Amino acid sequence: MYQNAFFTLALFLFLSLAVSAQHGWEEVAPGVWKIVVGTPDDFDLLSAAAVPPRLEGLRKLGAAPFPLDSAQIVGEVTENQTQLRLPLVREEQIFGFGLNFKTVHQRGRILRLHVDHYGNSDNGRTHAPVPFYVSSEGYGVFVNSARYIDVYAGTGSRQDSPDPPEARDRNTDNAWTARPYSDAVEMRIPVGGVEVYLFAGPTPLDAVRRYNLYTGGGPLPPRWGLGFTQRVHRLFSDEQVRQEVQEFEDRGFPLDFVGLEPGWLSKSYPNTFVWDSGRFPDPEGFMTDLKKKGIRINLWVNPFVSPESPIYNDILPYTGTHTVWAGVVPDFTIPAAQQVFWGIFEREHLAKGVSGYKIDEVDGYDEWLWPDVARFPSGISAEQIRQTYGLLVQKQSADLYRKKNERTYGLVRASNGGGTSFPYVIYNDYYNHRDFITALINSGYAGVLWTPEARASKSAEEWLRRMQTVVFSPMAMINAWASGTKPWSFPEVEAEVRQMAVLRMQMMPYWYTEFAKYHHEGTPPFRGMSLEEGFAVGSGPLTIADSEADLETNPYAEAVRKEVKDQYMAGEYLLVAPMFEGETTRQVVLPAGRWYDFYSGEFVGEGEVITVTPGLDKIPVFVKDGALIPLTDARLHAPGNGEKYNLEVRHYGEKPGEYLLYDDDGETFDYERGAYSWRRLSVTRQKNGSWKGEVSNPEKGKPNNLSTVSWRFMTARQAL
Amino acid sequence: MYQNAFFTLALFLFLSLAVSAQHGWEEVAPGVWKIVVGTPDDFDLLSAAAVPPRLEGLRKLGAAPFPLDSAQIVGEVTENQTQLRLPLVREEQIFGFGLNFKTVHQRGRILRLHVDHYGNSDNGRTHAPVPFYVSSEGYGVFVNSARYIDVYAGTGSRQDSPDPPEARDRNTDNAWTARPYSDAVEMRIPVGGVEVYLFAGPTPLDAVRRYNLYTGGGPLPPRWGLGFTQRVHRLFSDEQVRQEVQEFEDRGFPLDFVGLEPGWLSKSYPNTFVWDSGRFPDPEGFMTDLKKKGIRINLWVNPFVSPESPIYNDILPYTGTHTVWAGVVPDFTIPAAQQVFWGIFEREHLAKGVSGYKIDEVDGYDEWLWPDVARFPSGISAEQIRQTYGLLVQKQSADLYRKKNERTYGLVRASNGGGTSFPYVIYNDYYNHRDFITALINSGYAGVLWTPEARASKSAEEWLRRMQTVVFSPMAMINAWASGTKPWSFPEVEAEVRQMAVLRMQMMPYWYTEFAKYHHEGTPPFRGMSLEEGFAVGSGPLTIADSEADLETNPYAEAVRKEVKDQYMAGEYLLVAPMFEGETTRQVVLPAGRWYDFYSGEFVGEGEVITVTPGLDKIPVFVKDGALIPLTDARLHAPGNGEKYNLEVRHYGEKPGEYLLYDDDGETFDYERGAYSWRRLSVTRQKNGSWKGEVSNPEKGKPNNLSTVSWRFMTARQAL
């Protein structure tokens, strides 16, 4: 045993030296460093995602200094385990570790990162337990491993700590605390090595941008993907879908795509992947007709193959030892499995006009999926397959569309680090409105997209409040396959719901441009307040001492230091503060700078905590000084390829403003070959004090879908 | 990757052959088999406990056939992991996997066995996550590993299953289920090998007995350990303790030992392990005085060493990398650490008269204890230290008393497989009365003891109901250090509480004998109904189909098939069915055979579900036909070494009966050197139909503490 100890210790010293020397870090892109500890797996998150970094975007962000003292970063390998340690300073706060639903501040938490359904507690089991965190000090850390990672996010105190906590007598000392100060994030990865990546700032948002760009940049959805979607009853026939589509049109509600649930399949759970000839006798004709009306079809699937599927015998050699609902589980790391499995998708779905998928049950529950003792023919462990299954199905299904030069935008239950660029939005069957907003905030630290879908509601008020947040999210989804709820199901708020839906469609140019920035610049379109320049000031863990002080001396400093998990940024300019059922008033923490009401343009405050009392018809939204928000006409379907649209540019506040408006064909991947444009919108003050708006000329040979451009100066009267 | 696959597969085949051949199993004791899969750790649960098997007891149980088809038991080692598979048949139910609080039937559950505080869900994190299970088919399985073990207790379905579930169409088939049938228990141990033990029946109770005997047999507490104990306020001085002791005596409440909380220490959390000279100026005199009154002292401790402790510098070289509350964490696997740490206990505590300990915080929480990335000088992993810390402190503290030839009986927050023989009862800070009873039931499958302590109550009714279950448990503890509750705190039930406390003392001969059976024969003194002969019949998982059938045709079969987690067996003869606050009536499931009321002796039923409506003053207790229950006089303190006591033997039912009464000096380990006796009590029917009771003569040179013996035939009138 003692020999064992010496061996461990020796190994420890050797590796820490090897690792903590800064020259051990390789700068793999501007502001991005990588180090290899021990001998990592061949198969990891980045190899599963298999997406090249967006070096162009990273070069634009430019060079930056190594953001930590590398001597304080320790990696050790002991008995087939890798242990990492990264430093924390007293006032530092950290964010991330994936799609958490209840917490934004992660310092002091213990997590086991494990792909699973969300089980109502932020313990690391979630749909996207991304091993990436970003610090209020302006750097990010990513651990590229497909293992279950134990994270001690500032909990353990060490004897060798340069800044250890003090021992106190609990009997009589009131300052005693059950959880003394810790100066490090520590992690345990159950394998003999890992790759660790470090992303520079200077700001936390820069670190997030670098992570997102290094993992491929955000997806650019087709324009129709940002319109409305409705999911219909699981056993609907083609005729019933046509009727529902007609009713949306008759009632003047926007609709861009319809989701079909398991009933489209001849057998499901496990699945044949072929159409049910009774409910859908002519899928191709059905989808052709709908597309003429500007409506696309999204199909529910899960990847478990029924013995009655035409591909069963061909996929069998490439499946795991364990079945799910008596269906076989494809090993998607094997090319032959990919060809067999996705082949039937191409023939039966894409060729007939399917525009996207909702990929279910690739996350958990443990009681349903293969156990960790399962084995797969590739030899990759069940644990690694579990951690990457969501990445693999996103990547491989997205590639089908890329081959057709046609963009898709769908839904998935699981993702992980490296999945930033996939055109999928995460959903689940948890349904807490407040926690959905916290998840939307956390999605911005994790390189994933999340939708606070509206599913059903107990009251008209709840329905309207949920629809209001759906409108300010990555996917405007009504997921009513079980409840049968329609936008107009609550007559007393039908008008208000329609108004919100119309606003979503009017804001299309803004949403589309903000997604383009996610793709080209790595800026999450939806993100937490801590990533806002004027907000980060004074963040860091709230200690009992300073909170009490601050409550009297500086309520704002205390507010930003506290976990703010019910308001978020939507795109460059908008601060969204949702209302929840039963609320008539709420507090909003405004970052530094002057802020304006989205609807009226009136000044509301700057760097302070305000209380708002909006009507039931309004979701509080606030706009930065000098903002330009590009809107278009109200319409029921997103503009199609080459379709022209009018622009109304709204200017807010007292500063001049400038906005680069993105445009392309909205449907293909030609933008990757340069077929896109950035048009400069600018508002300047005239000698007479009035505002003047200008739009730059279209670039030669670039897409130009703008017809008329009009200007609206929302804060004009205050300015004069 | 493919090579990797072939390698894995080859290894798999080789090992499964190696393991599944029955000659791979070594019979290490009668009815106990062991197999070694791969290369296990040197340090495991049994080496941590370091207790020899009670071969004498195992020989008495005798030989038995290998209980499973060894060809169906598969052990595999892949990439530094061990995977186990054991077969299940359709109707089989399994019990165990440690101290669960909400469930008794474990088939269909997924657990990660991890020593921790109980977090309100049966997920494997508990104070004693013992990797042992027993089957309704009459065998037991123990995995001797100190790693976190993932258990799939009949959840995964395999392609190669001889009896796989059938694929169904969820769209239209109502018989579709989210959790199809599984024919195996599978486990994953994160190391390259383990020892697996198999325990024969024929009955489930025999398998439990064999496990308990193989791990050393149950502890035999000193007689005083089975009396009452009160824990006093954490900052009480010696004078305040004397006053509390006096009040127990004045009010006529039994009391055998008093627990001192952290205030006895000069500093705590972390601890100096020396007395606070202010509150306890003369510990030795204090304890000597109390012992004269028949009262002993138990000390709260946790093992984390304060920089201000006299042993700090000596223990430092043998402590882990991480601190707990800024105290250092001894590596108890190192002999030098044991000498330093327990040395101060001998000098400061035992030498001055301390009779036992309450060892706190050796279980969890993760936020408090060392993280799994910590390292210890022995080279044993933090995970293994976590899994065995409770075993190590129990073993090493118990050995201090063995050295003095003085028995102890204390409290501990953590145990594990192998800890059966340690004289400690598990406690925690969870406080659900119903779940406490379920935990008491599960303790009987896990080789541990648990107390449903009374701590505080919202009402007189709750207080009385909790005191009633305390009386029928391994330790009659009032843990009122925080609440200050006394037995008489609710005047309206003071008389009823006293009556129950007195009953506990009267039953001392029965309790003491039943613990002797735990020690010599391995029979848990408190255990679940599924271990009762007449009950096991018809057990097994309740399927929707047969439950519906049974509800109409056979409510009893359905009742025993259902999870029964609110009634239990106390010793050989007694069935205890506790009442919970708010209840005036309840159902009780009686095993086959005739049963009688404990208080009146009246017949109540046989092999059926009865409904009882006891008064507030009674806890429903039922007695087997032919039972003999030995009682003694009411007294406030348990009989001391060599103290004589009177016996009243109660006979129940219509059958003759026989009972072996255990006796020894009640305080030392001389019984291990033969200084004990089994006196035969028997009741036979006379020609005239009346009962006759006889007691065998004392054996020469054996302890004999009986003075008068009287007989009471509880069911006599019905019998005549």
Shape of chain A: globular
Give the DSSP E fraction of chain A (strand runs of 2 or more residues).
Answer: 15-25%
Order of the strands making up the biggest sheet of chain A: 20-19-18-16-15-14-21
Q: Largest chain-chain contact?
A: A-B, 79 and 79 residues
Low-confidence stretches of chain A: 1-21, 537-552
| Strand runs of chain A, count | 35
Q: Strand pairing plus helix content of chain A: what structural class?
A: alpha+beta
Task: Return Rg of chain A in Å.
Answer: 26 Å
Percent of residues in helices of chain A comes to 25-40%
Major sheet characteristics of chain A: 7 strands, parallel
Structural notes for this entry:
- 2 copies of one chain form a homodimer.
- In chain A, a hairpin with a 2-residue loop joins strand 3 and strand 4.
- The first copy, chain A, is globular, with a radius of gyration of 26 Å.
- The model of chain A is unreliable at 1-21 and 537-552 (pLDDT under 50).
- The first copy, chain A, has a 7-stranded parallel sheet.
- By secondary structure, chain A is α+β, with helices and mostly antiparallel strands.
- Chains A and B meet through helix 1, strand 4, strand 11, strand 12 and strand 17 of A and helix 1, strand 4, strand 11, strand 12 and strand 17 of B.
- Strand 17 of chain A pairs antiparallel with strand 11 of chain B.
Please give the structural blueprint.
Two copies of one chain form a homodimer.
Chain A: H1 2-20, E1 26-29, E2 32-38, H2 45-49, H3 55-61, E3 74-78, E4 81-87, E5 94-96, E6 109-115, E7 125-126, E8 132-135, E9 139-144, E10 149-153, E11 157-158, E12 184-189, E13 193-200, H4 204-214, E14 228-231, H5 238-251, E15 257-260, H6 283-292, E16 296-301, H7 312-315, E17 322-323, H8 335-348, E18 356-359, H9 382-403, E19 410-412, E20 424-426, H10 433-446, H11 460-471, E21 476-479, H12 494-506, H13 508-521, E22 526-527, H14 533-536, H15 544-553, H16 555-561, E23 568-570, E24 574-576, E25 586-589, E26 594-597, E27 603-606, E28 609-612, E29 621-624, E30 628-631, E31 645-651, E32 657-663, E33 677-685, E34 691-695, E35 706-713, H17 716-719
